[in-house]
């Protein structure tokens, strides 16, 4: 009987602790990263026109725009194709793209490359009002180029990976207000 009372007492203490913890976390404004949404309640749909490409790299605008669209959808934002039917429009541009050797072998062959992409993005309401100000973001990556591999294919694959980081950063800035 005494053991039963002690066990029930422990469960009550644990239950009170859990209730206190939940109440505390709710009260302090705590939220998990990736779950926040700070878009105005009037914004139900977002259009993402293809970003402008001011670089020499072909298809970079398609790769980046696709990654951002997919991240918005993954985060629960309804993305529409036509700007006219959207509550907000995410406009952007790729202003810079560079690749450069970072490691050179003894026979003067580049074996590792760096990649830098500069993106500007801005979220506007359908009326043209600024919801999220135009921001310039710089992203870098580094990758190996093994002998016998096609430079352009390897570069494109790394660009796709970097575009996922670009998308996560831009969508987090918009939705979470960081």
Strand segment count = 6
* Largest sheet composition: 6 strands, mixed
Number of helices: 3
In the predicted model, the low-confidence regions spanning at least 5 consecutive residues are: 21-36
Can you write the helix and strand succession as a string?
A: HEEHEEEEH
Domain count: 2
CATH architecture of the largest domain: 2-Layer Sandwich
Strand content: 25-35%
Task: Enter the CATH topology name of the largest domain.
Answer: Double Stranded RNA Binding Domain
CATH class of the largest domain: Alpha Beta
Kindly report the average pLDDT value. 84
The dominant shape is elongated
How many angstroms does the end-to-end distance come to? 55 Å
Q: Roughly what percent helix? A: 25-40%
Radius of gyration: 24 Å
In short:
The chain has 2 domains: 30 residues; 141 residues, 2-Layer Sandwich (Double Stranded RNA Binding Domain). It is 38% helix and 31% strand.
Task: Give a verbal description of the structure.
- This protein has 178 residues and is α/β, with parallel strands linked by helices.
- The protein has helices at 2-27, 60-74, 151-176, and strands at residues 45-47, 52-53, 78-80, 88-104, 110-125, 130-144.
- The protein folds into 2 domains: 1-30; 36-176, Double Stranded RNA Binding Domain (2-Layer Sandwich), CATH 3.30.160.
- The N and C termini lie far apart (55 Å).
- The chain contains 3 helices and 6 strands.
- Helix 2 (60-74) packs across helix 3 (151-176).
- A hairpin with a 4-residue loop joins strand 5 (110-125) and strand 6 (130-144).
- Strands 1, 2, 3, 4, 5 and 6 form a 6-stranded mixed sheet that branches.
- The longest helix is centred in the N-terminal third of the chain and has 26 residues, at 2-27.
């Amino acid at each position: 009987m005494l053991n039963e009372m002690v066990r029930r007492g422990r469960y009550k203490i644990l239950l009170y602790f859990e209730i206190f913890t939940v109440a505390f976390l709710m009260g302090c404004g705590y939220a998990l990263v990736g779950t926040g949404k700070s878009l105005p309640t009037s914004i139900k749909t977002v259009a993402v026109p293809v970003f402008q490409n001011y670089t020499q790299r072909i298809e970079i605008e398609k790769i980046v725009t696709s990654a951002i669209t997919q991240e918005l959808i993954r985060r629960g934002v309804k993305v529409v194709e036509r700007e006219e039917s959207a509550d907000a429009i995410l406009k952007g541009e790729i202003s810079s793209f560079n690749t450069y050797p970072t490691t050179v072998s003894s026979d003067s062959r580049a074996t590792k490359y760096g990649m830098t992409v500069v993106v500007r993005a801005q979220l506007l309401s359908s009326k043209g009002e600024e919801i999220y100000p135009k921001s310039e973001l710089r992203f870098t990556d580094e990758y190996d180029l093994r002998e016998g591999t096609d430079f352009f294919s390897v570069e494109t694959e790394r660009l796709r990976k970097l575009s996922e980081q670009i998308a996560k950063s831009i969508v987090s800035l918009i939705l979470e207000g960081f």
